[in-house]
Amino acid sequence: MRMILDIFAQIFRTLWAHKLRSFLTMFGVAWGVGSLLLLVGLGEGFRSGNKRNLAEFGEDIMFIFPGRAPVVAGNMNSARTYLLNYQDYADIRREAPHVRNASPVIYRDDVRAVSEFASANGQIAGVEPQYNGIRYLPLKQGRWFNDLDDGQKRNVIVLGDELTRNLFPGRPPVGTTILLNGIRFEVIGTVKRIGRGDENMTNMRGYVPFHVMATFFPLKGENHQNSISLVNYQPRVPAEHLLAKEDVHKIIARNHGFDYHDEDAFENLDMVQQAEMMGKIFDAMNMFLGTVGLVTLTLGAIGVVNIMLVAVSERTREIGLRKALGATNRSILIQFFLEGILLTLLSGLIGMGLAGALMALLGTQQGPEGFDPPKLVAATAILAIGSLTLAGIAAGLYPARKAAMLQPVEALRQE
């Protein structure tokens, strides 16, 4: 124990004797570690933010909208518009083997909502009860409507968070009634706030049973009888999303009289495919950021190697003197071994601490949409500090072993 303490005392005296050189070496190592951790942390925050945004749409959600079907394949100038209807949705539920769940949707933006406290213009959506199992709609208060509400056409509504705030400022909404274009509806539930900021349209939306919506607020325009805005659906498993899309295309094309092979005839949104693409982009981004960080880290490691080679070269006479006084090869090797570890490990921990503090500071700021606060990735920190420590050990052991093997007289002759 006494020998170890003496060795550490000698190490600190040596580092203090070359303060500027030691500082610059440690700064290079700390900068490399901090840069790597910060870059990877920023990438991880971007990944988690976009993943959260996708999750707020729903799990494995897909959309099919009304479209335009070409009379002549591939010629959109000859295209005719077709509308989706409730029969399309019913056929998808019944006939599509790769579709797990689906719901028709009717959207209206021109319905005025009035409570006893205020009025507001939002978007009213008519959906079936299973819709909240497809889209991400966590309840804050009350309940979601059920099959009886839809089947018996009960005038009930579930309000989004922003619409609730506008209609019932500081007051409990559940159990009260509102008017939608003069028609009375009972508020049975509210939805938690989704996303950050005020740009998420989901928060300004109210949900009523589909058949109530179709009765009181059908889509306007010619040929809109029984028409719907879109169909939300989910594949049986995410890997089958292309098969589910093909099932839906076949049914829509058959019902509306065109070839399902014509991709231009369909208006789709496939969140499963988008999630896969985003995952590939994030993997490539992490590789790029990691490579940039590793280059910076390598420069720090080169600095460690250089400083250790110079230190050992300068202290060859000291090594000879210590051997002449009885120091063993083992004690000399241990000193440089510990010096290399201390220099790199301490510098790496400083870099990790600074990177963690900066990421914590960034976490207190409101970032742009799609960005979560950067995260300190433990595996990257361990890899960075471990690789630098190995570099420091190698840089110290090789010249130290060479010097330790010298005869004391030969070592003392070194200039």
Structural class, judged by helices and strands? alpha+beta
Q: Strand content of the residues, in percent?
A: 15-25%
Structural shape: elongated
What is the chain-wise order of helices and strands?
A: HHEEEEHEEEEHEHEHEEEHEEHEHHHHH
Per DSSP, the total helix count is 13
Topology readout:
Layout: H1 2-17, H2 19-55, E1 62-65, E2 67-70, E3 79-82, E4 84-85, H3 86-95, E5 99-108, E6 112-114, E7 119-121, E8 123-127, H4 131-134, E9 139-142, H5 147-151, E10 156-159, H6 161-167, E11 177-180, E12 183-191, E13 205-209, H7 210-216, E14 227-228, E15 230-235, H8 241-256, E16 267-270, H9 271-314, H10 316-324, H11 329-363, H12 378-404, H13 408-413
Parallel strand pairs: 8-13, 10-12
Antiparallel strand pairs: 1-15, 1-16, 2-3, 4-14, 5-8, 5-15, 6-7, 6-11, 9-12, 10-13, 11-12
Helix pairs in contact: 1-11, 2-9, 2-11, 2-12, 3-8, 9-11, 9-12, 11-12
